[in-house]
Structures are given as structure tokens and as C-alpha cells.
Amino acid sequence: MSRKTKEAVQGVIYILPSFVLILIFCIVPIFMSGFFSFTDYNIMNAPEFVGLDNYKKMFQDSYVRDAAKNTLLYVVMTVPVQTLLALTLAAFLAEKMRNKTGGFLRSVMFIPVIASAVTAGTIWRIILNTDGGFLNNILNFFHISSVNWLGSTQTSLLSICIVAVWKNVGYFLVIYYAGIMGIQKELYEAAKVDGATSIQQFTKITLPILKPITYLVVTLGIIWSFQVFDLAYLMTGGGPGHSSVTLVMGIYNAAFKQYKMGYACAMAMFLLIMIIIINVIEDLFFKEKREAK
Amino acid sequence: MMKKKVTMCLLAATMLMGMLSGCGKSGSSASGKEKLTFWFPTFAAADGEVTDEEFWNEKMDVFEEENNCEVKVEIIPWDNYEEKYLTGVNSNDSPDVGYLYMEMFYDYIDMGALSDIDKYFTDEEKDNYLYYDLGNIQGKQYALPVIVGNPRILTANMDILKQAGIERVPATWDELKEACQAVKKNVPDVAPLMEDWGNSHYGSLNSIYWPIFWGAGGEIVDEEGNLTIDTEAGLEATKYIYSLKEEGLLPDSSTSNDDALEPFKNGEAAMIFNASSNALQVTDINWDYSILSGPENTKTFVASDSLVMFKKCENKELAAKLMKYVTSKDVMSDFHTRVSEQPPITSDDTYTGDERFSDLFTNHGDEFQSLPVFKGASSLYDTLFKNLQSMMLGELTPEEVLKNTTDYYNTNLK
Hints:
The complex is a heterodimer of chains A (293) and B (414).
Chain A: H1 3-36, E1 39-40, E2 48-49, H2 53-60, H3 62-96, H4 100-114, H5 117-127, H6 134-141, H7 156-181, H8 185-193, H9 198-209, H10 211-226, H11 230-235, H12 247-257, H13 261-292
Antiparallel strand pairs in A: 1-2
Chain B: H1 2-21, E1 27-28, E2 34-41, H2 52-67, E3 69-76, H3 81-90, E4 97-100, H4 102-110, H5 123-128, E5 136-137, E6 140-141, E7 144-149, E8 152-157, H6 158-163, H7 173-186, E9 191-194, H8 205-208, H9 210-215, H10 232-246, H11 261-265, E10 269-275, H12 276-279, E11 287-290, E12 300-301, E13 303-309, H13 316-326, H14 329-338, H15 358-363, E14 368-369, H16 377-392, H17 398-413
Parallel strand pairs in B: 2-3, 9-10, 12-14
Antiparallel strand pairs in B: 1-2, 4-13, 5-6, 7-13, 8-10, 8-11
Helix pairs in contact in B: 16-17
């Protein structure tokens, strides 16, 4: 066996355990979901082929329409905010707080990431309570009337977005912070010599170098946001009305409340296609930017 | 090298044996004894005298000795309760004897997962059960009611009502409105009535919607299983509930509130609809209760959860014995005393709970009503609750709530 072949075999052996796990727990289920999405299947009885019925029904279902709309809104509201906030905070901490206080603040901001969604949801329900809630108490202090955060169709989804940003920002902050710390200081020193302002240094050096990280942050943010379930389920249950129902909530209800596995799989495939489309668009956007450079 | 290989083989064989030994479910155990699995939900309070597991293991020791068998007890938490059963049934790992609530029945009957248990009970035994007929679903005895209780009641802070000039708990729709108006006028700092329309689960309907709906003479489904909420009675009830909000008798915060009990406990609300067991948590307030009568009926929701025997059970005679044992006077009265205070389910048992509810459980049983069993019940309740939430926010009319819910059910859930 030549050295090259030996190395190739070794490589395959190294990736084999992960590949098998990914195959069993990710790839096969996707194909199974695809298959079941064309069937009427309730777990106990054998799946019965129904063609595109589940998909036709899905597009006529007002719940799914509202869920898709809310999920998109949620993505649009959370991803840009959490990305910008994480970047700004990371830049601030890296620039101004390279000391113990900065380390402490980074740790504090990471706590929501490791907090369980149940804990976060419960605490935020109390904070956002209409009567006596912490946030409304602050508003009342400034003579602003209380807001029915979770009980109004105008603010329920927004409230969930706020909590999601609070929960995710620490994670992305750490990624950005590591990226910023990896940028060579000489670049900034040279820019300073050339008379670049702090903002120019940020936009001309920091941002372009962080592009791959931004790509990662935006991609992860989009995927996580499309998967939103736990916070919405805990904080509003999808209500009031359909104002905060999400696609994953719809999948959960169809699968585990209505036992319509085929229908749930159709919704899951729809969600998968939506995520793929958005990721392709995002990829093209970043690619164009890279090529423009 | 050889030694290493032998060790590895032995290790693998041990692991395999370990895995295989874990595969055994119902049927016979290694000791040759008959084996049953029993799933029951959690009821014991966190600071209670015993845990659920301790209680049931203690009881099963007696049953095992009497019947020379083994019973594996598994306590199922309420979180993801339905998923646990669903995955159990799907993987042929369901219990021999389990515990289902009403919303779960249709699908398991439809799947053919449950056994008709009627033939295992003598007439005398049936007569002893107070709610045996509640387990007759779609013409077959699929269920043996085990927890029939926690009726929903209108609980009132009598000190606040007296301040408002009301001497007794409202017992009719009109009296409720009069009492609310009196509280609004005379005790303006207190919410006349508090409801939890902000709850994320449709279970709130059992307290704040169905009793009113039944009071107006409404029926959720007809005998053929068709949804019948969009009727004059349904509309009358829904309009009545809406009017409470419209007339300012329910505070705006009720649309985001997920717990009516807390404001009541704190003296911030004069009246609430709640479960009888929740009322007992209110210790510092002088409260009284009633079952609200509507223009047609006096009906309130009562939880009716049952033991079921799964079809895959290999020893059905023994499983039926287990069901009888669990629901026997001795086991149940001990359960009610040490684990969860509930009314008796057999006529040879007596009510030993809080004296204030003695009359309720002794003389008002005919006013208790449980939810019907029909296809897509959980999703229907969820859809209705969400539409009612929209109505309380002024985004749907009562007519639209009933029509939209019925249309959605007929199109997507039936």
C-alpha cells in the first residue's frame, strides 16, 4: 500500500465515526421525512401514499400561513439585530475593555446562552408581565403606560424576538471577539499612521477581515431562528390568536398532538426548503461581496 | 495479544447480554413470574409525604406478593406526557396498564391500541364504581376512571364582596355580572374577575369557557362526532364572556395573564374560576365558592382521567386485576390521603378531604361534566382558545370565533 493510499484510508477511518452518526441521525431522517411527507401516516398504521395532498393542504392551512409569516418576521427581526449587537459589543470589549472587567462582562453576557429556554422563558414572562412586570414598572416610573407585551398581537412576537436576541447575543459576541482578537495589530498601526479614524479602521479593516465570521454568525442565526420553538411555546404558546405561532410549533402540533406524521413531515420539508433557499441567497450575497473585493 | 482479544470478546458478550436483558418487557420475567408494566403520572407535591414512585412501589409490593408477579412502575411527568405514550406505542414499548386523559383517547382508540375491559368486571364491581360509565367511549369500555375530580368552581373573596355589598357567591350569570359591577364601583382597586386568557395552554378553557358554554346548553360534539360549538347556545356563552371584557369587568391584563390564582391570593382580584384543588392553596383569604348556573344548565368541568389496558398486554386477566387493585378503596383512599386529595371513585369509599368541598363532592356529582372524546380534540381546543384570545383582544367577534373554529376543524382536523 502506497503512502498516499495509506493516508487516504487513515483519513476515511478518522471521519467514519462522525460520518456514520451524521448519516444515521441527519441524512437518513431527512430522506425518511421526505418519503413520509407524501403519505398519510399516524405512527400506528402503515403509511399510505397520498401524493401531494399534504403539501396542497399545507398551503391552504391558515395556521401554516400564519406560522410561515411569523417565522420569517422572526428571522428578519432577530438575525440583523443580534448580529449587529454582537459585533458592536465585541468590538467595544476588544477595543476598550481588555481587562478583568471586560472578561467579567463577556462571561455575564454568555450566561443567557447556557441558561435553559425554560428558565429564560419563565423569567421573561415575569419581566414582561402586564401588571407588576419589571419592564412595565420601569415604563410607569417614566409616566409611560403599561404595555401588554405578551397579551397583544402587536407585541407578542416582538417580545419573543427581544428574548431571543438577549439569549443568543452572548454566543455570537464570543465568536466575534475571538475573531477581532486574531486581527494583526500592525494593520491598525499602519492605518493610524495613514491617518485613518477609528470608524475608518473599523469599516476598512475589522469588518472585511471578519467577513467569514459574519457569514458563520448570519448562517447560524438564520438556521436557529427558523427553528424557533421553545421560547415561543413557553412564553405565549403561539398566542394570542396566531400572532406568535411558528413553523416548528406547527410541526410539533401536527406530529405529537394530531398524530399526523405525514403532514408534519411535509411542513418540515417546507421549512428545510425555506432554509436552503435563504442560505443559497446568503451565500450568493457573501460570494458577490468576496468577488467584488 | 491473545489475552487482549479474549478480554475484548468477554466485554462485548457482557455488554450484549446486558442490552438483551434490558429488552424484556411484559410477559414473564427471569424469575418465571408474570410481569406487568404500569405507567402513572405525577401527583405528589414536591414537599409531600411520599413521592409518587415510593407510593406506588409500596402498593405494588403488596400486589406482587398476592399475585406472584412483578410490576414495573414508571412515573411519567406531565411535561411531554403525550409524546411519551406516543413513542411508547410506536416502539411497542407501551405499558400494560397506563393512564390517559380524555383528549388522548380518540387517537389511541383509532390506532387500535386499547383493549375493551368490560368483560373483566362483574356487575357488582361495576356498580361499585361511581363513574364507570364515563369510561364507556364509542360504545366500548376502554377506560376505568381513576381520577375524577378537580371540578372548576367560581371562587370569591368574601371580604371584598361584602365591601361591595354582596353577601354570597354569585350563582348565576346575572348575579356574576351584578357582583362584578358592584366590586368595580365600590372597590375600584380590585379586579372584579380575573381570568387567564394569556395562558399558553388551552387547558384554561376548562375553567373559563366550557362551564359557561355548557351552562348555555351547548354541546361540543353531537353523537356522530360532528363539532357543534357554532350554535345559538355557543354564541350566547361566547358573547357573555366577551361582554365581561367589554364592560370592563375583566381587566385588560387578563389577556396576558397566565395565572389567575396569584392575583386572587394577593387580594387583587375578587373572583376567579379555578380548580377546587387550587382553591385549597388559598389560605389567607376568606373565600367561598359556587358552580355557576347558566340560563339552561348548571354544569362544570371535571377532570376524568382513566386507567387503560393496552392491547399488546399479554396477560390481560392480571392487568385487569391490577386495575381493580389500583382503583380499590384501600389504595385510593391512601392515595387521596398521602399523595393527592381527590374525591372517592367507588361507593364503598368516603370523602375524607377538605370539609368545604364535602357538599360539592357528595351532592353535586350530576353537575360535573368531562370533555367528550372525538377526533382532533386537542387541536380543536387549541384553535378555539387562540380564536377566543383574539376575540378578547377585539380582533374577532364571537360569531367569527365559532365560525372560524368550526371551519378550521372541518377542513383541517376532522
